[in-house]
Task: inverse folding
């Protein structure tokens, strides 16, 4: 079995004065789709933002592709290239004049010091392929601010796909998509996992989707309550522990 | 009949006079631009306009317009301190502008109050303290107008060299970090996730912006400097459809506005800095009239 793509050991994160994540440990193996579930305010987004180095940690260790995340959130550039991240809300200033192809191209770049024309034809070709893969090539000259919610999600996914990666981190990424686009979104994720061995770590509130599509589940409510396969983890007892007994009674009555 | 002939004669002489006046004005302006100080002024204004437009393109998208205005106003405090210490204000101004910019950034990042309100406090108080300090020097009271509105015509060769070197540094910085700057401007968490060192990039940008403001103060003055940063970038935004196009148009309009403004200033014998800003305003208004930009402009 290959080395895990992500290893988290005893991670504790404070937001102001309270612990948002406490002593959480888990691993994400290559080619596995791992879901993080839990109620609002359980620390799911905090957890993945800390793994990415966006938020500082109080204690614990994070290893991505075997490389440690420094206390200041630094990772080698070559490792960063292997990670793609889709935030919960892609909130941006809609007056920024950036086209879809310019934006997807940013996903291809190394983002160190480089001449602006670096990449040239290879970059353009990768952008075209990624946009075609998500059926958004026709949007390439459009401004990102002019896209609909569904189109924007597809373009964000193209930003992730434009270069081969090892780890895709999604924070409720399909939120806001209609049923058809959501199903297409998951079909693409499944394909990436199966054909390119991508590891996926995704925050989700959709327990039915998690049961159907994910290989592993981490159930958290500030601390890690359980982890394992969906059948093993999403039991009424564990859900009651995470969401409260009312939630389980409601799901049973539906 | 005689009355008609008289009227025609008057009109002809008036036309002749106005043609001669325009011709003589052209000759005067052409002769004026032969003079070395006008060469320096024209070149200095174009360099300043280009730098302002280039850095302004990111400044407005990061909502730092008021920050650049505050830097401009605070420059007066730096100049006053230089005078009071008996040092060359030009030498004090640049390190002061950089330290001041970094100090204000640190202050803004560690407070929960509103940025615009805090910047208002900083700029008005630094202006007030600067004026009070200048009042202790009787020999500089007359020079306050030069500080407020600048004097492009007084630019020296060393000023041009400083401006030229700074423009090259700004262009290299923006060019080599373009992709990181764009992603950082668009979505900071995604930039961090890709390994962009946000604090280093932000500090480098703020230092360069403060140097651009500090270098340009002599030519433009503390009151108008932010216009050089803001107006070309806003006009460029109305005229551009891609990010790269936006940066290039912003820098180009900054330089174009400065060159036309200098000519207008020479032709109508108007103050140079305000003439350039007025020309930049006209360019901005014309950009607002462009058919495909109305939706964004209004």
Result:
């Amino acid at each position: 079995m290959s080395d895990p793509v992500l290893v988290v050991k005893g991670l504790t994160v404070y937001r102001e004065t309270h612990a948002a994540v406490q002593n959480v440990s888990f691993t994400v193996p290559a080619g596995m789709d791992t879901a993080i579930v839990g109620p609002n305010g359980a620390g799911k987004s905090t957890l993945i933002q800390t793994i990415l180095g966006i938020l500082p940690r109080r204690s614990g260790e994070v290893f991505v592709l075997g490389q440690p995340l420094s206390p200041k959130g630094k990772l080698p550039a070559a490792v960063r290239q292997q990670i793609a991240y889709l935030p919960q809300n892609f909130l941006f200033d809609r007056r920024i004049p950036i086209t879809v192809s310019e934006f997807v191209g940013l996903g291809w770049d190394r983002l160190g010091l480089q001449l602006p024309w670096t990449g040239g034809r290879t970059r353009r070709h990768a952008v075209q392929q990624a946009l075609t893969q998500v059926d958004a090539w026709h949007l390439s000259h459009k401004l990102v601010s002019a896209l609909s919610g569904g189109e924007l999600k597809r373009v964000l996914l193209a930003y992730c796909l434009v270069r081969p990666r090892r780890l895709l981190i999604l924070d409720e990424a399909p939120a806001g998509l209609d049923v058809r686009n959501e199903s297409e979104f998951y079909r693409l994720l499944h394909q990436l996992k199966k054909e390119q061995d991508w590891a996926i770590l995704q925050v989700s509130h959709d327990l039915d989707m998690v049961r159907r599509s994910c290989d592993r589940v981490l159930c958290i409510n500030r601390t890690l309550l359980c982890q394992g396969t969906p059948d093993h983890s999403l039991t009424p007892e564990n859900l009651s522990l995470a969401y409260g007994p009312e939630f389980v009674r409601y799901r049973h009555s539906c | 009949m005689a009355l008609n002939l008289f009227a025609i004669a008057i009109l002809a002489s008036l036309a002749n006079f106005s043609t001669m006046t325009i011709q003589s004005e052209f000759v005067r302006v052409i002769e004026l631009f032969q003079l070395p100080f006008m060469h320096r002024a024209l070149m200095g204004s174009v360099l300043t306009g280009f730098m302002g437009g280039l850095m302004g393109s990111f400044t407005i998208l990061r909502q730092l317009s008021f920050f650049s205005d505050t830097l401009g106003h605070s420059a007066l405090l730096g100049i006053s301190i230089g005078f009071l210490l008996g040092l060359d204000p030009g030498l004090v101004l640049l390190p002061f502008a950089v330290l001041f910019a970094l100090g204000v950034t640190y202050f803004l990042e560690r407070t929960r109050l509103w940025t615009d309100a805090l910047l208002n406090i900083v700029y008005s108080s630094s202006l007030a303290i600067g004026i009070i300090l200048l009042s202790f020097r009787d020999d500089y009271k007359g020079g306050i107008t030069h500080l407020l509105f600048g004097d492009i015509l007084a630019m020296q060769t060393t000023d041009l060299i400083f401006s030229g070197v700074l423009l090259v540094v700004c262009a290299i910085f923006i060019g080599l970090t373009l992709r990181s700057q764009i992603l950082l401007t668009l979505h900071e968490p995604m930039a961090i996730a890709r390994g962009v060192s946000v604090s280093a990039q932000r500090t480098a940008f703020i230092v360069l912006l403060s140097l651009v403001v500090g270098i340009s103060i002599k030519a433009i003055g503390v009151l108008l400097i932010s216009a050089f940063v803001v107006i070309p970038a806003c006009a460029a935004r109305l005229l551009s459809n891609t990010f790269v196009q936006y940066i290039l148009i912003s820098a180009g309009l900054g330089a174009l506005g400065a060159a036309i403004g200098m000519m207008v200033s020479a032709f109508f014998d108007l103050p140079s800095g305000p003439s350039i800003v007025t020309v930049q305003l006209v360019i901005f208004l014309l950009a607002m009239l462009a058919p495909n930009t109305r939706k964004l402009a209004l």
